[in-house]
Amino acid sequence: MIMDLDFNIILIAIGTLLYIAVSGLFAIRSKLIYNKLKRQVKLRTLVELNIIVSAINVIAPFRAGGLLARTYILKKLHGIPHKINFTASTLEQMIDLAIQAFIAVFCVYLVGIGQEIELVSKIIISLIALLGLILLFFWGGMKGITHKSMLIIESMIPRKIRHIIKKKTNIRKDNFMELINLIQDREDKILFFLGFILATIFIYLIFPIPFYLFVYGFGIHLTITQMFVVFWLPLFLGRVSGIPGGFGVREGSMIYIMSVMGVEAAKATSLTITFRVLTVGAIIISGLILSAKYGMNIFKLRKEEVKKNDDDKKKSK
C-alpha cells in the first residue's frame, strides 16, 4: 500500500515537471516563425520566455500580459523589432484559437456532451480566427482592407486617447501593413503555413501527456481518448472565457466532464484541484526564477519599462 502511494506521488511529481517541459515545446513553433522572419533567437531563450509568458498570463489581469513581456525582453536583449514580435504573437494566437476550436468540436463529438456546454459562439469566434489566418497569408486585398479598417477605428477614438496609445505602445498603422508584407511577400508562404499548422498539431498531441500521469497517479480509470477530452475541452473553454488562467472555468469543466464519464465527484474534484494547483504553481515559480535571470520582475513589468525609458532619455541628453 505504501509502495503504491509512493509510486502515485512519483507519477504526479513527474507529471508536474513534465508539464513545464512540454509548455516549453511551444518554443519550437516560435523558433520556426522567427527563422522564417529571418531573425535568429536561440531555442533555449524561447523556451525560457514561453515559460515566463505562461506565468504572466496567470498573474496578469489581462491575457496579453505575457506576450507584451516577451516582446519587451526580445526587443531589450536581442534588438528584435516590435513588428517582428507582433507578427509572431499574432500568428501564434490565431492558429491556437483556430485549431483549438476543431479540437473542441471533436471532443464534444467523442464524449457525446450536448447542450450542457455552450460552444457555438466560441467556435464561431475561433473559426473567424482560422479564416483570418488564411486571409492573412493568401488574400492580396488584406493590406487595403486593414488600412481602411485602421482609419475607421482611429477616427472613432478620441485624439488624446490615440496619442496615449501610440506613446505607450509605440504601435502605428504601418506596423500592421508591415506585418502583412512580412507574411505575404514570401515565396514559401504555403510551406510556412502548412509547417506552422503541423508543428502546432504535433505539440497539441504531446501536451496532454502530463495530465495522463496525474490521472494514473490518482487511480482514475479513463481511456486515452477520455483523458484527451478532459484535458483539452476545459483548456479551450478557459481560453475563450477571457479569464486569466481560465480559473474557475477550466476547473468546473474538468470536474463536470469527468462526472459525465462516470468518475466519482470526490475523485474528479481532488484530481482537478491537485493538477491545477501544482502545474500553475510550478509555472509561476519557474516564471519568477527565469524572469529574474533576465533582470525583470514580472509583477512590476511596467515599472521596469518606465525606468528603461527614463534611462534612455538621460543618455540622449
Describe this structure in words.
There is one protein chain. The protein has helices spanning about 1-25, 25-35, 45-60, 65-80, 80-110, 120-140, 140-155, 160-170, 175-185, 190-205, 210-215, 225-240, 250-260, 265-295, 300-315. With about 325 residues, the protein is an all-alpha fold. The protein has one domain.
Short précis:
By secondary structure, the protein is mainly α. It has 15 helices and no strands.
The total count of helices amounts to: 15
Total number of domains: 1
Q: Biggest sheet, open or closed, and with what strands and sense? A: none
C-alpha geometry: globular
Q: What percent of residues adopt helix (DSSP H or I)? A: over 70%
pLDDT averaged residue by residue: 76
How far apart are the first and last residues' alpha carbons, in Å?
A: 71 Å
User: Which parts are unreliable, with pLDDT below 50 for 5 consecutive residues or more?
Assistant: 302-317
What's the order of the H and E elements?
Answer: HHHHHHHHHHHHHHH
Gyration radius, in Å: 21 Å
| Alpha-beta content class | mainly alpha
What is the strand content?
under 5%
Beta strands, count = 0
